[in-house]
C-alpha cells in the first residue's frame, strides 16, 4: 500500500483542496479510472446510502462490480468466479467466492453520490447485514430470478423492515433457462407480504434474454450482442417495436396494471388520474407515475421491481437509474435523536476494520453537522475524547482523503482508537450536554431522554471452541488479535474459561469460527489450534424449589459467616434471560454493598448452570433472606449466594436446553429421499416440502448439535447439487435420553 499526492481544484465555486489517494495494493492505476476531480461534497438530495442484500449467491457482488464499472470507477470487469472483484477484498472472500464483510464503496452516477454497501448473504454473517441496514437509507434486494424469494432474502427483508428501509427489487440471472418472472412476483407477494410493482418486461428469456422494455416510458432497451466479450456498456434505447404485437400487448397490460397499483397506494396520484386523465389513464405522463412511485416506495407500501442479468451485463444501468429515482436521500429519513443536535455533529460508527499500518479504521455515517479531519470528537458511549486524524472516502478501489464530510455521507476515519461499532460520535462534551438539555426541555423528562443513536442488537453465539496459540509466548499476540477482531465483529465473543484458563471463541456458525481462525493466521500471523467445535447449550429449571446454605470460613484473623435462603422457579417465558428479586420487605434493610454482593452472586450462578456450566435462562430467583455476622466480606456473601442458587437449581430439576435451527434445503427430486433419510438421523422434524420448478424445498427444524459438518455431508449426498441455509429458531428442552447421553459424553463416559 502506498500514498500518492494530488492537487485538486474542484471548480470555480470551490476552493482548492489537496486530496490524497491511498491505493489498495491490488488496485488499478488511478489514471485508468474516473478522475478524482469528481470528488466534491454533493448536495444532500443527491446522496443515496444504499445496501445490496440477498440470499447467498444471488449475485450481489457481481451486480456491485457492474455498477462500479458502468459508473467509470474501475477499468475492467471483475468476476467472483475468478476471485478478482473489488468489494470481496479479503483473501478468504476471494478464495471462497463469498462476501464476508460489508465493504462500503462510493461512486457517482448521473450527478448523484452513491454510497453502497455490499452485504454478505451467508446466515453466519447476518449481523453484518443488520449493521449496514442501521445506517442505510434504502436497499436493493437482489433475487435469483430462477429461485424467487429464498430463506436468506426473507431474513434480510425482515431486518430491512425493522429498520424501515425502503427497497427496490432486482430480479437477477434472467439469462438462466429456469428464470421465471411470474414465480418471482408471486413469491415476493406471498412470502414478503408486500406489493411488487413491475417496472420492466424482459425481452426473451434464458439464453435469448436480450433486453428490457421500460413499462413507464414504453422504451425498449436492447443490449447489442450475446458475445462473451461485450461489457454491456452501450445499449440501444428506442420506442417499443410495434412489429412484436405480443410484447406490445404485454407492456400495455403491465402499464395499466402498474397505474392501477400506484393509484391504489397513493391518494395524490389517484386524484390526478381521476381529475386530469379520467378518459384515458394511459395518457398519464411517465414523470407523474415516477413521482408517485417514489412516494409509494419511500412510504414502504410497495417495492418497484427491475430485471436483468449482471453476469451477462444487462439491466444494471437502469437499476442505477432506479436507485436515484426511487430510493430516499438522507434528508428523507427520520432519526429522532438528530433534532437535538441541530447543526452540531452527530455521527454513528457502524463498522471497524483494522489496517496494519494505520490501526483501526472506523466507518461513520454523519447524521448532522460536519466532521472534519484533524479535530477532536467526543464518543458518548465510551465517554472519551478521541482525535480524527484523517477522513477518507472509499472510492471503488481507491481511498480518497477529504478534509471534511457533511450530513448524509459515509466516510472512513483514521485515528479513532477506542470507538467500536454502534458508538455515537459528537463534536464535544459540551455539544452532547447541549443536546441533552434541548431534549429534556422539549420532552419535560429528565431520566429517560437519550441523545445517542441506537446501535445494533448482537445475537447470542451458538457455537464455541477453545483456541490456543502455538506457544505461551504468543498468548499476548493472540489476545491482541482477538480484541482487534472483536472490535470489527461484535458477533464474535471471547471469554476465558474460569476452570481451565483456556481462551474460548464463541461465534454464529461453523463458517464464522472458521473464518476467524483463518484471519488470525493471515492478518495477524499466528498459527492457532482450535479445539473441537461445541454447541452453546443453555440450562433452565423445570419446577419450583427452595434452598438454604451457610458459609462459615475463617481467613487469617477474620471469621466470615453468612446464611442465605433462596427460591427458584421457571419463569413464564423460558426464552427470557434469568431474573432475580428480593423478597418484598428485605431490600430496604440491606446496605448498597450487600445488595451488590448478592446481585453478583446470583449473576455468577446464572453464568454457569448446575448441570454443564452453560448460561442459565428462563429462571426467576427470589432472595428470601440473608443474615451475616459483622466482619463478613461481600465476596463471601457473593460466594454463598451463588452456591445456594446452584443448589436450588439442582433441586428444581435442572434441564439442558439445546439450540434448534430452522433449515431450508433446496434439492433435486432425485436426491430428496436421501436428504430426508439423513435428516431423520439428525433428529430433524420436517415442517413442509414445497416445489420450485423441478426442485424440492425442504423446510425443517433440527438441533444444532446434529448439524456439524452438514455442508460436506449434503454435498456428498447430492453430488453437490443441493443448497441449504440454517438459522437459529429457538432453544428447546432436550429429552431425558438425549440429555443423559450429553451429560455422559461431557463427563467422558462415552
Ligand atoms: N447465470 C447468471 N449467473 C450469475 C449472475 N450474476 C451472478 N451470477 C453467478 O452467481 C454466482 C454468485 O454470484 P455473486 O455475485 O458472488 O453472489 P453474491 O450474492 O455476492 O454471493 P455471496 O456474497 O456469497 O452471498 C457466481 O457464480 C456468479 O458468476 C447472472 O446474472 N446470471
TrEMBL record:
Protein name: Ribosome-releasing factor 2, mitochondrial
Listed InterPro entries: EF-G-like_DII, EFG2, EFG_II, EFG_III, EFG_III/V, EFG_V, EFG_V-like, G_TR_CS
Domain Tr-type G: 45-331
Pfam families named in the record: EF-G_D2, EFG_C, EFG_III, EFG_IV, GTP_EFTU
Annotated family: Belongs to the TRAFAC class translation factor GTPase superfamily. Classic translation factor GTPase family. EF-G/EF-2 subfamily.
Reaction catalysis annotation: GTP + H2O = GDP + phosphate + H(+)
A GO term from the CC aspect: mitochondrial matrix
Residues that bind GTP: 54-61, 118-122, 172-175
Cited function: Mitochondrial GTPase that mediates the disassembly of ribosomes from messenger RNA at the termination of mitochondrial protein biosynthesis. Acts in collaboration with MRRF. GTP hydrolysis follows the ribosome disassembly and probably occurs on the ribosome large subunit. Not involved in the GTP-dependent ribosomal translocation step during translation elongation.
Cellular location(s): Mitochondrion
One GO term of the biological process aspect: ribosome disassembly
Annotated keywords: GTP-binding, Hydrolase, Mitochondrion, Nucleotide-binding, Protein biosynthesis
Gene Ontology MF terms: GTP binding; GTPase activity
Amino acid at each position: 500500500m502506498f500514498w500518492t499526492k494530488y492537487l485538486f481544484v474542484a471548480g470555480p465555486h470551490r476552493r482548492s483542496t489537496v486530496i490524497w489517494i491511498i491505493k489498495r495494493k491490488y488496485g488499478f492505476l488511478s489514471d485508468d479510472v474516473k478522475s478524482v476531480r469528481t470528488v466534491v461534497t454533493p448536495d444532500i438530495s443527491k446522496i443515496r446510502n444504499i445496501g445490496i442484500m440477498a440470499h447467498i449467491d444471488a449475485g450481489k457482488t457481481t451486480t456491485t462490480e457492474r455498477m462500479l464499472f458502468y459508473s467509470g470507477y474501475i477499468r475492467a470487469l471483475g468476476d467472483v468466479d475468478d476471485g478478482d472483484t473489488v468489494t470481496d477484498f479479503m483473501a478468504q472472500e476471494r478464495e471462497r467466492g463469498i462476501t464476508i464483510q460489508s465493504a462500503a464503496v462510493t461512486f457517482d452516477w448521473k450527478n448523484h453520490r452513491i454510497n453502497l454497501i455490499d452485504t454478505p448473504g451467508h446466515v453466519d454473517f447476518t449481523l453484518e447485514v443488520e449493521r449496514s441496514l442501521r445506517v442505510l437509507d434504502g436497499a436493493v434486494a437482489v433475487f435469483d430470478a430462477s429461485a424467487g424469494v429464498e430463506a436468506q432474502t426473507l431474513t434480510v427483508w425482515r431486518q430491512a423492515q425493522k429498520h424501515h428501509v425502503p427497497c427496490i427489487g432486482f430480479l437477477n440471472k434472467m439469462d438462466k433457462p429456469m428464470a421465471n418472472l411470474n414465480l418471482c412476483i408471486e413469491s415476493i407477494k406471498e412470502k414478503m407480504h408486500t406489493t411488487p410493482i413491475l417496472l420492466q418486461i424482459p425481452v426473451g428469456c434464458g439464453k435469448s434474454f436480450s433486453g428490457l422494455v421500460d413499462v413507464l416510458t414504453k422504451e425498449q432497451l436492447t443490449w447489442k450482442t450475446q458475445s462473451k466479450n461485450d461489457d454491456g456498456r452501450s445499449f440501444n434505447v428506442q420506442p417499443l417495436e410495434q412489429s412484436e404485437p405480443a410484447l406490445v400487448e404485454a407492456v400495455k397490460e403491465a402499464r395499466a396494471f402498474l397505474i392501477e397499483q400506484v393509484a391504489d397506494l397513493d391518494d395524490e396520484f389517484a386524484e390526478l388520474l381521476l381529475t386530469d386523465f379520467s378518459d384515458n389513464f394511459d395518457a398519464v405522463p411517465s414523470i407523474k407515475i415516477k413521482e408517485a412511485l417514489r412516494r409509494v416506495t419511500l412510504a414502504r407500501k410497495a417495492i418497484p421491481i427491475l430485471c436483468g442479468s449482471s453476469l451477462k451485463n444487462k439491466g444494471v444501468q437502469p437499476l442505477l437509474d432506479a436507485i436515484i429515482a426511487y430510493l430516499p436521500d438522507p434528508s428523507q429519513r427520520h432519526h429522532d435523536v438528530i433534532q437535538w443536535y441541530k447543526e452540531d455533529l452527530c455521527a454513528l460508527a457502524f463498522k471497524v476494520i483494522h489496517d496494519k499500518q494505520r490501526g483501526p479504521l472506523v466507518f461513520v455515517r454523519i447524521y448532522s453537522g460536519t466532521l472534519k479531519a484533524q479535530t477532536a470528537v467526543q464518543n458518548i458511549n465510551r465517554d472519551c475524547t478521541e482525535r480524527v486524524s484523517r477522513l477518507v472516502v472509499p472510492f471503488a478501489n481507491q481511498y480518497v482523503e477529504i478534509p471534511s464530510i457533511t450530513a448524509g455521507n459515509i466516510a472512513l476515519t483514521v485515528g479513532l482508537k477506542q470507538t467500536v461499532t454502534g458508538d455515537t460520535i459528537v463534536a464535544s462534551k459540551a455539544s452532547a450536554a447541549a443536546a441533552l438539555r434541548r431534549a429534556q426541555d422539549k420532552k419535560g423528562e429528565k431520566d429517560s431522554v437519550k441523545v445517542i443513536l441506537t446501535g445494533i442488537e448482537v445475537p447470542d453465539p451458538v457455537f464455541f471452541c477453545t483456541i490456543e496459540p502455538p506457544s505461551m509466548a504468543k498468548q499476548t499476540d493472540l489476545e491482541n488479535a482477538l480484541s482487534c477482531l472483536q472490535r470489527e465483529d461484535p458477533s464474535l465473543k471471547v471469554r476465558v474459561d474460569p476452570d481451565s484458563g483456556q481462551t474460548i471463541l464463541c461465534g454464529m456458525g461453523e463458517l464464522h469460527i472458521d473464518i476467524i481462525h483463518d484471519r488470525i493466521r493471515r492478518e495477524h500471523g499466528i498459527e492457532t489450534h482450535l479445539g473441537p467445535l461445541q454447541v452453546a447449550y443453555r440450562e433452565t429449571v423445570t419446577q419450583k424449589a427452595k434452598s438454604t446454605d451457610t458459609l462459615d470460613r475463617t481467613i487469617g484473623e477474620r471469621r466470615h459467616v453468612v446464611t442465605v435462603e433462596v427460591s427458584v422457579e421457571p419463569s413464564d417465558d423460558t426464552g427470557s434471560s434469568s431474573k432475580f428479586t428480593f423478597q418484598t420487605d428485605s431490600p430496604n434493610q440491606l446496605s448498597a454493598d450487600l445488595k451488590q454482593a448478592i446481585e453478583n452472586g446470583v449473576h455468577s450462578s446464572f453464568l454457569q448452570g448446575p448441570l454443564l456450566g452453560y448460561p442459565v435462562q428462563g429462571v426467576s430467583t427470589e432472595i428470601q433472606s440473608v443474615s451475616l455476622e459483622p466482619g463478613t466480606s461481600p465476596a463471601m456473601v457473593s460466594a454463598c449466594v451463588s452456591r445456594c442458587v446452584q443448589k436450588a437449581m439442582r433441586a428444581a430439576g435442572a434441564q439442558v436446553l439445546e439450540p434448534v435451527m430452522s433449515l431450508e434445503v433446496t434439492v433435486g427430486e432425485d436426491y430428496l429421499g436421501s436428504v430426508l433419510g439423513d435428516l431423520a438421523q439428525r433428529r430433524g422434524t420436517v415442517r413442509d416440502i414445497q416445489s420450485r420448478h423441478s426442485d424440492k424445498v425442504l423446510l425443517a427444524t433440527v438441533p444444532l448439535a446434529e448439524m456439524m459438518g452438514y455442508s460436506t455431508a449434503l454435498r456428498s449426498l447430492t453430488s453437490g447439487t443441493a443448497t441449504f441455509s440454517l438459522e437459529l429458531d429457538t432453544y428447546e428442552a432436550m429429552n431425558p435420553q438425549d440429555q443423559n447421553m450429553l451429560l455422559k459424553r461431557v463427563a467422558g463416559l462415552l
